[in-house]
Design goal:
This protein is mainly α and about 270 residues long. The chain has helices at about 20-25, 25-30, 35-45, 55-80, 85-90, 95-100, 105-110, 140-160, 165-195; strands spanning about 215-220, 235, 245. A 3-stranded mixed β-sheet has the order 1-3-2, with no helix packed on it. The mean pLDDT is about 90.
């Protein structure tokens, strides 16, 4: 059960309208790494959680917070669209100055949503549930969450750099700070899980059944050997199970495939004479 509090978690009020920037802000609302994605990702991970209750509670805490972030950004977008009615869009075709100001506006903000935010990214692509991950393996999921927060914070920081509006920057500074916390949160949760299990996901699979002679070999499949100097090419493996090795000239270990001709009813490529 959810309750809605009318006041926003933090202020979301621009200093002036900017319909072009409203289009850019859609990315952190309905984009792949936007607030809608992490909201759904965390909530489904929480609802599906079969591990200790502290993980379920934590996931629902942060997932519910992300609902509030969606509301903040949607509110900001709507206010950035103030003063940009449809007639101004029509006038833009006649007035070169106005066209220069509004030329980058998302026309759907006027035509479809009536000067409101939409569940899309900055180029109008609809939000997609395939952006989200909820696998039932918390270590795998928390690593995905860390990536989502890293990419999300990167995008918010970039948006911060391309506006001078103090009201917009104020809201973005709050979101940047929360993403700092959330990255730390996922790193802490990952560290805690890794202390109780192997670092490789899934940790429950018997490694005797994998081809162990290539489990810890870094293979040089591109020109140059600079990669040889990396941590991944020598020394103890991060899961503590073996030593990394570097394979300078990896060799093919499989067969040379030759497929049989397709049967006639497939109407494939006929044999040449």
């Amino acid at each position: 059960m959810f309750f809605h509090v009318k006041e926003l978690q933090y202020n979301a009020k621009p200093s002036r309208p900017d319909p072009v920037y409203a289009k850019k802000l859609q990315e952190i609302l309905g984009g792949q790494f936007g607030e809608m994605s992490v909201m759904i990702q965390y909530l489904f991970q929480g609802w599906n959680c079969r591990a200790e209750q502290k993980y379920r509670d934590m996931l629902l805490d942060i997932g519910t917070e992300e609902i509030g972030h969606v509301e903040m950004i949607a509110t900001m977008i709507a206010q950035l669209l103030d003063g940009a009615p449809v007639q101004e869009q029509e006038q833009a075709a006649k007035d070169p100055v106005l066209e220069a100001v509004l030329g980058g506006m998302n026309p759907q903000h006027a035509i479809v949503s009536g000067l409101g935010a939409t569940p899309t990214d900055s180029v109008g692509y609809p939000w997609n549930a395939r952006y989200t991950i909820a696998s039932g393996n918390l270590l795998a999921d928390f690593r995905a969450n860390l990536n989502a927060e890293s990419q999300g914070r990167l995008q918010v920081v970039r948006l911060y750099e391309v506006t001078t509006d103090p009201g917009v920057r104020d809201m973005l500074s709050f979101l940047i700070a929360r993403d700092t916390m959330h990255q730390n949160q996922w790193m802490a949760a990952i560290e805690e899980l890794e202390q109780g299990q192997k670092a490789i996901v899934p940790s429950t699979f018997n490694q005797e059944y994998e081809k162990q002679d290539v489990s810890y070999s870094f293979m040089n499949f591109s020109q140059g050997e600079e990669s040889k100097t990396g941590r991944w090419a020598s020394g103890k493996s991060l899961d503590g199970q073996a030593e990394f090795t570097y394979v300078s000239t990896p060799e093919a270990m499989g067969q040379n495939p030759k497929l049989a001709p397709a049967p006639s009813y497939i109407h494939g490529t006929p044999p040449t004479k």
